[in-house]
Design goal:
Distance between the termini: 36 Å
Number of strands: 18
Number of helices: 17
CATH architecture of the largest domain: Alpha-Beta Barrel
Mean pLDDT: 94
Strand content: 15-25%
CATH topology of the largest domain: TIM Barrel
Shape: elongated
Oligomer: single chain
Low-confidence stretches: none
Radius of gyration: 24 Å
CATH class of the largest domain: Alpha Beta
């Protein structure tokens, strides 16, 4: 039974439970959503109706929410399979959604396809599984600001996250190179900010560009549909609106947000260039009003308790050159650099007052010296363990996202056959060796971890999948499974079988060495 992520405990018994056209599927109170998901996942390949009991009269799959199973927590489950019955139990509906994915993995890999397959014996092994996740936040980050991705791929990526028991899609919606969310109060954000005239065509140092316009955005309705689809699979969509840096696309749409500088005005375009930009929001009331307008609509679309406001890489060069910004800093009794923390604190307080929890990259810890973050704010530690320790010391929960372990846009191997990527090499083996709970922190202080996919060099869905998999499989296990007994060789053995499931889904992954060799996808 090659399950990924590895369950807490598994006991194999003799025999099997065969699914046939007469197999029934019953759902107790609170289990209806999991039953619907199971039917949706299995019907395309198996063609099995899995009718409710009383309609089908064969053996039975039963899904049950049992509040007495409190030891399983919000996402744990038990799966007990005998020849006559497969019983899936959880203390909460979300736990059943996780168990459904395990049940699916126990079937032959053909069950993961989207077309009918004949001649397959659809059988579950008789087994008892008890499974509880280690960490509460197990996420996949996707940057759609550098390259717009079609909505259909966002839905597919949710399916891939859910299949690996990951529960957060962190959607990076805005940056210097594009603004991707429709904001009705600020229409120029998508009329202007969602489009650039050309893009970088090589490594950052080469300064080569194509001549192909690029752009796109998601309507509020499209994003709402994505949120609902993800929720049915137990995945929360956490939006990121990067503020006050990484905002050149917003300033191209509304130049007044860039503030006043001495000398003639410079035209601002949606940037075709990767890297950190010094076009950042002016720290004045007009910019705060803009942010509130944007965040009001973000809250309308995304019910997530967490809202990510970025806060990273905020060069203050232009602020220092601005008389009005220097005057504002003096009025507030701050340095010019201290305005970063003040600005972030204003947005954090605004979100906190509306019952939401702020998330920011660990740059906000330095900025926060001017104004500490609110109680309940969480910190994504991308710069390393030092930021995590500082965040925990300040009473904030931590999401471990260190770039040298979890940035999946980094290359997967050395060699001329590898596609262009950002940063250094992060191998599958390195990801699997990652411990998301750095000493002396405990599991209770670390909210979770996630894999980052910044898309400067991932311009297509195919390239995104090639970068993500199978490293995301390893990270899913790191986040879900207990660290005791973790063994790379044993994981790679299970991964062989799991890749056949991804094959059925048509995932264009990079085969791990030395399973096989494969040319990377072309753009």
């Amino acid at each position: 039974m090659d399950l990924i992520p590895r369950p807490t405990s598994v006991l194999r018994r003799t025999g099997g439970f065969r699914l046939t056209p007469t197999t029934s599927l019953t759902a107790g109170p609170g289990a209806e959503g999991a039953a619907a998901l199971l039917r949706d996942l299995l019907r395309p390949a198996t063609g099995l109706p899995l009718a409710p009991a009383g309609v089908a009269r064969g053996n039975a799959i039963a899904l049950r929410v049992d509040e007495r199973a409190a030891d399983l927590g919000a996402e744990g489950y038990r799966l007990d399979v005998s020849p006559e019955r497969a019983l899936l139990t959880a203390a909460a509906p979300t736990g059943l959604l996780r168990g459904v994915q395990t049940l699916r993995q126990l079937l032959p890999p053909e069950a993961w396809g989207d077309r009918p397959v004949r001649g397959v014996r659809w059988e579950l092994p008789c087994v008892s599984v008890r499974d509880v996740p280690r960490l509460r936040w197990r996420g996949g980050h996707l940057d759609v600001a550098r390259w717009w991705m079609p909505p259909s791929f966002l839905f597919r990526y949710v399916d891939l996250l859910a299949a690996h028991k990951m529960n957060v899609l962190h959607l990076h919606l805005t940056d210097d190179q594009g603004w991707r969310m429709e904001i009705e109060r600020r229409p120029r954000l998508t009329e202007v900010g969602a489009w650039r005239s050309h893009s970088m065509a090589g490594a950052l140092a080469e300064e080569r560009y194509d001549d192909v316009p690029h752009g796109g955005f998601y309507t509020r309705r499209e994003l709402g549909d994505l949120v609902a689809y993800a929720a049915r699979r137990g995945v929360t969509v956490v939006p990121e609106i990067d503020l006050p840096g990484h905002t050149q696309a917003a300033i191209a749409a509304y130049p007044e947000l860039g503030g006043e500088l001495p000398g003639p005005d410079e035209p601002v375009e949606v940037s075709p260039r990767w890297g950190v930009h010094d076009r950042i929001l002016d720290p004045g009331e007009a910019s705060l009003d803009f942010c509130r307008d944007v965040l009001e609509e973000v809250l309308d679309v995304f019910p997530s308790p967490f809202v990510h406001i970025g806060g990273d890489e905020v060069p203050t060069t232009r602020w220092r050159a601005s008389p009005s910004v220097r005057r504002r800093a003096r009025e507030l009794g701050l340095s010019v650099d201290g305005l970063h923390g003040w600005f972030t604190g204003e947005l954090d307080a605004w979100l906190h007052a509306r019952g939401r929890r702020t998330v920011g990259w660990d740059d906000v810890l330095v900025a926060g010296r001017a104004r500490p973050l609110s109680e309940g704010a969480a910190v994504m530690s991308w710069l390393g363990a030092e930021g995590a320790l500082a965040a925990a010391a300040a009473g904030h929960e931590v999401i471990m996202t260190p770039y040298d372990w979890t940035y999946l846009d980094y290359g997967q191997a050395e060699g001329p056959g590898e596609p262009l990527s950002m940063g250094h090499v992060t191998t599958l083996e390195k990801v699997y060796a990652f411990d998301p709970v750095p000493a002396p922190l405990t599991d209770a202080q670390v909210l979770g971890t996630q894999g980052q996919l910044w898309t400067e060099y991932l311009p297509t869905p195919e390239r995104v999948e090639y970068a993500a998999f199978p490293r995301l499989c390893a990270l899913a296990e790191v986040a879900w499974s207990p660290p005791a007994g973790r063994d790379l060789g044993e994981f790679l053995g299970r991964l062989r079988t799991h890749l056949t499931r991804l094959d059925r889904m048509g995932v264009r992954y990079r085969p791990p060495d030395p399973l096989s060799s494969s040319a990377p996808p072309t753009d």
